[in-house]
Amino acid sequence: MLKNRNDDEFPQIPEIGSNRAIEKNDSLVWDEFRAGNESAFIQIYQDYFDKLYGYGMRIVRNEDLVKDAIQDMFIDLRKNRSHLGNTTSIKFYLFKCIKRKIIKEEGKWIGKLENLDPSYYFQFEYSHEQHLIDQQINEEKQKKINLAIENLSPRKKEIIYYFYHEGLSYLQIQELMGLDNVKSARNLIYKALNLLKVALQASS
């Protein structure tokens, strides 16, 4: 159990991976795309371009690089679609692809350690518009949360983003961040949330 989820300082979120209807729809659209359906490809492109752009800009501060990487990724996917594997989450599949491509373009390797190269960048803010969080949170508390997030390491920012903002499962987070196992993902989330809790208590 993630005890911090029920604390006043943190929003409650639904259980990860419980939306089977979305997974089923993703599987159907992805299979149609792999089978050569051009409408399915256009749907995926239109549905995810902006989300991939926002995600990419959290990884690297280079708008041109991110846009080029997204375009190149979709070209590669379209060209090789008959050889692609199946997926129940298009977003997760595309996140893996674009993160790998951006890191390759930057010539960097994030690795599995907490002590990352200081040039590694990951940024996001807690916003009341996000559908996974409590929309009734007041502006003052939102500012405190964002200040606490800003003081986290890039690695901890990244895992909080995946868990709260994108609603990814522990298994997906483990794979996306290159962690050794699911337990490592859980532990990193616990550490990040505990640091946020301490920072918020100190600012009260």
Per-chain topology:
Elements: H1 20-34, H2 38-59, H3 63-79, H4 90-106, H5 139-150, H6 154-165, H7 170-177, H8 182-202
Helix pairs in contact: 1-2, 2-3, 2-4, 3-4, 5-8, 6-8, 7-8
Q: Which characteristics define this entry?
A:
Arc Repressor Mutant, subunit A; 2 domains; elongated; Rna Polymerase Sigma Factor, Chain: A
CATH topology group of the largest domain: Arc Repressor Mutant, subunit A
Elements, N to C (H/E)? HHHHHHHH
Name the CATH superfamily assignment of the largest domain. Answer: Winged helix-like DNA-binding domain superfamily/Winged helix DNA-binding domain
Name of the top-level CATH class of the largest domain: Mainly Alpha
The averaged pLDDT comes out at: 78
The residue ranges in which pLDDT falls below 50 over 5 or more consecutive positions are 1-20, 108-119, 128-133
**How many helices?**
8
Shape: elongated
**Count of discrete structural domains:** 2
Gyration radius (Cα, Å) is 18 Å
Quick overview of this protein structure:
By secondary structure, this protein is mainly alpha-helical. It has eight helices and no strands.
Overview of the molecule:
With 204 residues, the chain is an all-alpha fold. The protein is 61% helix and 0% strand. The protein folds into two domains: 87 residues, Orthogonal Bundle (Rna Polymerase Sigma Factor, Chain: A); 91 residues, Arc Repressor Mutant, subunit A (Orthogonal Bundle). The N terminus is likely disordered.
